[in-house]
Amino acid sequence: MGSKTEGAGNYGAVSKSLHWLLFLLLLAQYLVGEFMPHIGGKTPNEGLVAWHLSLGAAILFFLVVRLGWRVTHPVGFPPSLPLWEQRAALAIHWTLYLLLLVIVVLGWAAANFRGWDLVLFGAVTLPPLAEKGMKWAHTAGDVHIWLVYALLGVIALHVLGALYHYFIKKDRIAQRMLPGNPG
Q: What is the pLDDT of residue 181?
């Protein structure tokens, strides 16, 4: 079932670390995405654009690690949590994972459309998903942008759920993921 503290409704240090690391990477990615120049036909892969691609590769890496950890170290719900809340939480969590994965892959293809490589941690060049100039990869970039808005909506639901448990239900569900909390 995992480490001694993981399972039986408790998140261990690895789960918490991956959760908050992905949060920080996504926050940085969103801010870089907001402030980087509009990507046009002659936009160079430098500055904030290069940061955006690097952060995207890091998000993909840690998302895959997080998914692997979650599948191999499942954490159950407390028995007191109503079934509808369990289903809602699962739906929101897996929608977050799916959207993140799709957004990153579409962004990767869009970068390849421009002839740009994705480089993980400045050291490992990821194989291209599309050849330069492929029309579908350009469209992937447009879909990538629109799905970010859907992701923001699902993140808002996730945060609202945590706030609901913390302030209204006061059932310690939200505290399970807080750093420094034993679970």
A: 82
